[in-house]
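Supplementary notes for students who missed Thursday's class. We covered one full example, reproduced here. Read the sequence, then the structure, then the short commentary at the end.
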Amino acid sequence: MPDVEGSKKQVGFWSSMPGILTGLAALVAAVGGLYLAVHKPDPEPKPPVMSVLEYDTNRAGSDLKKIAVADIDDCLKRCITNEQCRAISFLEASKTCWLKGEVPSPGKLQGFTSAVKIDR
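Structure (token representation):
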């Protein structure tokens, strides 16, 4: 007859309470990681910027709008905030800004300053 009094039934780790809790924690971590991998939030789009200024350069044609502005900075800001604007040409003498719907080829012309919008 086997000795019943001093023997305990051996239980495997995964059948014990610590094993079950460890398994559940691993499952929760895996499901959470999978959710985050699949449902990444879209990063905030960076606002566009303007290229370096092209002095004594006019980008003729493709005009969206001709506007009077205070200075070159005002002209650049108007292009950045206008979704259709792709470039500008600015004439210092008359404080006139041309917003461009496309990016025309640059041409040398005294007194004009141009720039191109860069989407990031």
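Commentary. Residues 11-41 form one domain. The first helix runs from residue 17 to 38. If anything here is unclear, bring it to office hours.
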